[in-house]
Amino acid sequence: SEGCSFDLKLRKVLFESGAGEIGKYRECSFNNSGIGTFTPIAGSNPHSGEIDKKHHGEEIRIEVIYPNQLEGKVNRAKGENQHYEEGEHSIFQMENRHKK
Q1: In this structure, which of 8, 29, 31, 87 has its CB flanked by the most CB atoms within 10 Å?
Q2: CB neighbours of 41 closer than 8 A, spacing ≥ 6?
């Protein structure tokens, strides 16, 4: 499906930006599927759904970690490779430490 190929492309660019490295492992991610909902309003250009109609669709949440100094690079990679009009992401600072 289109979503699946998009998810693979997004993971690839995130990994290429340096995200997803944990110790002696690379390309690490956690992926969780679910149902997203939204209602496009006038003036929007939705990738899926119709104006003023609630849309439900399968989505995958992709979680990766990266060192603080790569935040800008990772965000640019994500922003340049999303297909939604309004991209969404969250950043959580982790307090645990690991050795490379």
Answers
A1: 29
A2: 51, 52
